[in-house]
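haha ok so turns out i had the wrong file open the whole time. this is the CORRECT one, sorry everyone. sequence first:
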Amino acid sequence: SSELKVSRRWLLNGEAKVYDIYEGSILKIGNTSRLSGYPTTAVCWKPKTVDDFVASNCDGTINGTTVIDRRRLAIFKKTMYLIYAVTISVRGMVRFGTDQNTLDIFDNSTLKTIQTFEAGGPDQLDLNHHVNRIFSVKCLKNDPNVFFSGGWDSMVQVWDIRVGSGAVRKI
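then structure:
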């Protein structure tokens, strides 16, 4: 098969590099520092693409762009929030975690919020919400409805967007 196999790397200076894994050569280089005037907090490559990615920034924006032609794909803004983590499912649904302990899901094609999982309070005993900042979010590959989050509260939570009340499990 002549299918292109790539390796994608994100560097501390904001550069995104796409490598041909057979040749070892750099195919393209992009940079997120021009997407926002604020630091990039997280990056996620879009599933099933070579060079499309989304980047969250500490000003509450999520930018989508391509490395190859540096075309902007989408911009989403969550006012008054710092976004610390971002991931995107195979269906194009973006999940992100914030400094306000919330998890949000928005549709990358319509740029509209679909669902928000609210924060729990510091005295909340049921523990099916985060009670501190969320620093990691990851979708389950085999089921785009399920995703995981981890935060400053030392909890890893399992979420299912079909169950909107809170985490379905904690690890």
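Residues 138 and 148 are 5 Å apart (CA to CA).
again sry for the mixup
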